[in-house]
Amino acid sequence: MDAAETDPFDLAADAAAVLAERTGVEAHSVALVLGSGWAAAADQIGEMVADVELADLPGFPAPTVAGHRNLARSIRVGRVAALILGGRAHLYEGHPVSTVVHGVRTAVEAGCSTVILTNAAGGLNPDWPVGQPVLLSDHLNLTGHSPMVGPAPPADKPARFVDLTEAYSQRLRGLAREVDPDLPEGVYAALLGGAYETPAEVRMLAGLGADLVGMSTALETIAARHLGAEVLGVSLVTNAAAGLSESALDHAEVLEAAGEAGPRMVALLRGVLERL
Ligand code: HPA
């Protein structure tokens, strides 16, 4: 049977089983999804236990976006077994929503009750410089998709109508602020992506209450909350959103901005893992 015909929850369970076998780690408790420009953090957050190519796990496509790494890495930080997913599938790559959230579903099947989602984002708040990390307080899912669309979840999984009142955990934001007390928070608008926004779209997003704009995260958050995991979302502002500054938008510059913020990101992620 091809992957598209398999129940997505079964496929995640299959991937988790292969992950456990390949890493030798029976259960992980935290997953870290590294967005554009965050990949270097994978080498510095904890003690490396094992690497597995994502493409070797059932249901994972090879990432196609520069700045993403094709790796699942098992690390240890103190007592915590953490799973780093160094690649992410996006809708704009043409993947179905089930593939976009497969990493998060696999992580929860692998035992993760905490999911940390990182991304690069355009900033709408003029007070935030490039390189500013921001904790997500909430999101606007403007992708037009949801991981809860499709056949009802199997009987051993929670039903479809997920409560998203606290999509991003207050508790985890508190831990992040113990590590880095000055972190601001904001609302992340998730768009289909593939192109940056127009200035008119950015003005619209500001009117809707967005502080950040990006092309990922929200769907993964919904999938993680559906399965009961707590979510911490962290954006790195890699540019002012379109029309808010003089500079042109360019993916290479997004990656460069993310690279410069690397040490602060590593300290933040490591500090949160140590406090779980
Ligand atoms: N818009 C959407 N996604 C992004 C941006 C942006 O300005 N910067 C980094 N990812």
Fold and architecture overview:
The protein has a single domain (8-275), classed as 3-Layer(aba) Sandwich (Rossmann fold), CATH 3.40.50.1580. 29% of the residues lie in helices and 23% in strands. It contains 8 helices and 9 strands. The protein has helices at 8-23, 97-100, 102-109, 170-179, 199-208, 218-226, 251-260, 262-275; strands at residues 30-33, 47-53, 71-77, 80-85, 114-123, 133-141, 185-190, 212-214, 230-240. β6, α4 and β7 (185-190) form a beta-alpha-beta unit. The longest helix is centred in the first third of the chain and has 16 residues, at 8-23. The mean pLDDT is 93. Bound molecules: hypoxanthine. The site of hypoxanthine has 13 residues, from β5, β8 and β9.
CATH architecture: 3-Layer(aba) Sandwich
Return the string of H and E elements.
HEEEEHHEEHEHEHEHH
How are strands sequenced across the largest beta sheet? 5-8-7-6-9
Q: Tell me roughly what share of residues is in helical segments.
A: 25-40%
What structural class do helix, strand and pairing data support? alpha/beta
Number of domains: 1
Q: Which small-molecule ligands are present, each listed once? A: hypoxanthine
Q: Profile the largest sheet.
A: 5 strands, mixed, barrel
Instruction: Give the quaternary arrangement of the chains.
Output: single chain
The end-to-end span amounts to: 39 Å
* Relative strand content: 15-25%
In CATH terms, the superfamily is Nucleoside phosphorylase domain
Strand segment tally: 9
